[in-house]
Design brief:
By secondary structure, the chain is an alpha+beta fold. Helix content is 20%, strand content 34%. Helix 3 (359-367) crosses helix 4 (383-398) and helix 6 packs across helix 7 (462-476).
């Protein structure tokens, strides 16, 4: 951020009426209960007076979500001079539209200095009080509305006075700062509370309307005379409206994109105004308003002119990696601000620069329009996400891997990492665990975080890296996110477990390890189908394409596809290779950049294996990419073990025969074909066969075909079975009586249809039960009719 340098019911049968009446009674009881005991509204609470930011525990507020700010401010230079600057005064009204998550009996805003004249909530005067402690960085305007607010509400504060600068714990200045001819208000991290009351946290973004009433011309304290004045802010310039006498002009700005409060700029002074257009990658154009101090030197003004000319090319290049430009306007603001404002700042849409503009700094601040502005940190601890990216973007833009011809960004960031010894105090603050605002803008926020982005690119590869960089914007546009959110996105898109990497780079207070980088290859010596008991030899190679010797590089092979048809003897594995379950892990030995490490292992095909393939795929650890990481070796197909089937059963007509298949390979599937004297019997294709009368005096055979996946099919025919004898004569005592039903034929017997199933005792019992129930119902109905209880 800073850069140094219902239907009508039908009739029901009478027998259901009591049940319906009971249901209706229960429904009525429920409705009465609801009417008597409505839901109790939540009791009003006091909104939190903190946003829970570890850096600024007394800044920011809770209980509501700011939606929009409407700032109407009139500034007058006055005649009071302090040193070389003019101490101007303001008369202003600011309205915040917000939404309360629950009823609030009170809520707070951050507001430093100035005099509060009145506070209203939804147009009704409200009680208010101030709670300020500069040492604790606590400046609260506590508002108690006449009645609790719930849902959307509006709070309007009228105030006046001489606004002051806010001095950070690191000694730098922000907030409202007087200049030789006007004033500039910069907010990062918390200084904008010197200019208007608001929820001062990057986690609560809103839209803005800013109306600035300023003198039409201004003089400076150096005696350089008067010159046209301008009043700069964010978003789009809607109008410049002079007063009736022409002595004052109102500049109306509107920011329709979501904006964190620290990104608001108000700058008043004698400016040369440069209006231009910027063509975006999709061919559309946006307006750009740029402002440069009228009294700047010719050389400094030239840097501004050059920067304005470069807005389009730089933005289009950045669009290629970050996605569409997130703003509706662009531009720059360049002014001479005394005291501690010696930094550039990514104020949304038009960044601020002190005195002049350097190209690299311009790239940095424009990158912030995405990282920091479009997607902001939730708390100041996560400032590293955006500052690291903007710093990395400088090296990428200039490098031959990006848009320039210089040293590739990987090497630039590695050199910065390598050049800072492990014992250097620069590593003593973890970017994602910092809590001291006095060191907010230190090495950990810029340099180490830029190195993190470069290291992440090494760890997950270009495709996943640039997907993360773009999706962070696409998915989170207009919101505030945390470093943990970034970790989750990177893991999702890369498919990698990055927790240890993130801990090392972002959460640990020491020098992180630069990741290994290598290209992994897997090859095999076998080229034809593998015979049983054959040995397949595999070779793994890892070429160090990185900048450090291997320290933790590994390759993990899923060998489950090998072990289902072959064995790997753990005792023969070389040093550094271990087999656990279906995973074979190679711990790659220390290898210098530009060198290659290799290892081999073997697999022996099972004696009973047939068909299919030995398959495996290697997965490199972080920093590894695959040249060829998969292997498939075919295994020769062998016939299934087979023996002639054997027929068992009686030889008489009407008997059921069974084909048995002993001696075949386990899990073989069979098809059957029965024949009589060699002539196939249609539809006789199961393992059993009922001998028909036509087979009398003949022999029966069965042919079996066995198959199993990965094996060759085999066919075998049984020995002839028979000859078939005549059916046994029926015994007279077994003849059915004339009144008894004929016994059904079994399915498969000659003349049987398969649908002639016998009527079992259970079926007769069920029929009797149903009949009895019908008779009982009829009897009951008759009794009711007899008593006059029934009706039609």
């Amino acid at each position: 951020m800073r850069h140094a340098s219902a239907a009508t019911p039908s009739k029901h049968p009478v027998l259901r009426r009591p049940l319906l009446a009971l249901g209706a009674a229960a429904l009525v009881a429920g409705l009465i209960s609801s009417a008597v005991a409505p839901a109790v509204a939540a009791d009003p609470v006091d909104g939190a007076r903190t946003a829970g930011d570890a850096m600024f525990p007394n800044v920011g507020n809770g209980g509501y979500d700011a939606l929009d700010y409407d700032i109407d401010l009139a500034w007058t230079p006055d005649a009071v001079q302090t040193g070389s600057v003019v101490a101007g005064s303001v008369v202003a009204t600011s309205t915040m539209t917000a939404r309360a998550a629950e009823p609030l009996r009170s809520f707070s805003l951050d507001f430093e200095g100035l005099v509060v004249d009145s506070v209203t909530v939804d147009g009704t005067p409200a009680a208010w009080q101030r709670d300020s402690d500069a040492g604790a960085i606590r400046h609260k305007l506590i508002v108690t509305p006449a009645s609790p607010v719930s849902g959307e509400f509006r709070v309007t504060v009228a105030y006046h006075g001489v606004p002051q600068a806010h001095v950070d714990a690191d000694g730098s200045y922000e907030g409202w700062n007087a200049t030789t001819d006007g004033a500039t208000m910069l907010g990062q991290p918390v200084g904008n509370m010197t200019g208007f009351p608001h929820n001062n946290t990057p986690g609560d973004k809103a839209t803005y309307s800013i109306s600035l009433d300023v003198p039409t011309t201004l003089s400076d304290t150096a005696g350089q005379g008067s010159a046209p004045a301008a009043a700069v802010s964010n978003g789009e310039l809607l109008s410049t409206t002079p007063s009736a006498d022409g002595t004052r002009t109102t500049w109306a700005w509107q920011q329709t994109e979501q904006m964190a409060s620290e990104l608001l700029i108000i700058s008043i002074g004698r400016y040369d105004v440069i209006e231009s257009t910027v063509t975006l990658s999709d061919g559309s154009t946006i307006l750009a308003w740029s402002f440069v101090d009228s009294t700047s030197t010719t050389a400094n003004k030239a840097t501004v002119t050059s920067a304005v000319d470069q807005l389009g090319p730089i933005i289009r290049n950045l669009e290629s990696i970050y996605g569409p430009y997130p703003g509706r306007s662009a531009g720059v603001v360049v002014d001479r601000v005394p005291r501690g404002i010696n930094y550039a700042l990514e104020t949304q849409d038009r960044s601020f620069f002190p005195t002049r503009i350097g190209f690299s700094t311009l790239v940095h601040e424009l990158a912030h329009q995405w990282y920091g502005n479009n997607v902001s940190p939730t708390t100041w601890t996560d400032i590293w996400v955006a500052e690291g990216m903007a710093t990395w973007s400088e090296s990428f833009y200039a490098g031959s891997d990006g848009f320039g011809t210089g040293t590739p960004s990987r090497e630039q960031q590695f050199d910065a990492w390598s050049g800072t010894p492990a014992g250097d105090g620069a590593w003593s603050i973890a970017p994602g665990a910092q809590t001291d605002s006095a060191s907010l803008y230190g090495y950990q926020t810029y340099d180490r975080s830029a190195q993190f982005w470069a290291a992440l690119r090494v760890a997950i590869g270009d495709d996943a890296f640039f997907d993360v960089v773009r999706q962070w914007q696409t998915r989170n546009a207009g919101t505030s996110k945390t470093g943990a959110d970034l970790l989750a996105l990177a893991e999702e898109l890369s498919g990698r477990d990055l927790r240890a990497f993130y801990q090392d780079w972002i959460l640990d207070a020491d020098k992180p390890a630069w990741p290994d980088q290598f290209t992994l290859s897997l090859t095999s010596s076998a080229t034809a189908s593998l015979e049983r008991a054959a040995t397949a030899s595999y070779t793994l190679t890892a070429e160090n394409t990185g900048l450090v010797p291997f320290a933790s590089a590994t390759a993990t092979l899923d060998v489950g596809g090998i072990l289902n048809r072959a064995s790997i003897d753990s005792a023969t594995l070389p040093d550094g290779v271990a087999l656990t379950g279906d995973d074979l892990v190679w711990t790659i030995p220390a290898t210098d950049p530009g060198q290659t490490a290799a290892t081999t292992f073997a697999a022996t095909v099972f004696d009973e294996a047939s068909g299919g393939a030995l398959t495996t795929e290697a997965a490199p650890s972080l920093g590894g990419t695959c040249a060829s990481c998969a292997s498939t070796l075919a295994v020769r197909e062998y016939p299934v073990d087979a023996q002639a089937p054997v027929i068992t059963g009686d030889t008489a007509v009407g008997s059921t025969l069974t084909a048995t298949t002993a001696g075949w390979t386990d899990d073989t599937s069979f098809t059957y074909s029965w024949a009589v004297d060699g002539a196939s019997i249609p539809d006789a294709t199961t393992s059993t066969f009922t001998i028909p009368p036509t087979a009398e005096g003949r022999t029966v055979t069965v042919t079996v075909t066995g198959g199993r996946a990965g094996y060759l099919d085999q066919t075998r025919t049984s020995a002839p079975f028979g000859p078939v004898a005549a059916a046994a004569a029926a015994s007279p005592s077994a003849s059915p009586s004339a009144s008894a039903p004929a016994a059904p034929r079994a399915p498969g017997q000659l003349g049987a249809t398969g649908s002639e199933a016998p009527i079992t005792a259970a079926v007769w019992a069920a029929a009797a039960l149903i009949g009895g129930a019908v008779l009982s119902v009829v009897a009951v109905r008759r009794r009711r009719v007899a008593r006059g209880e029934d009706s039609v």
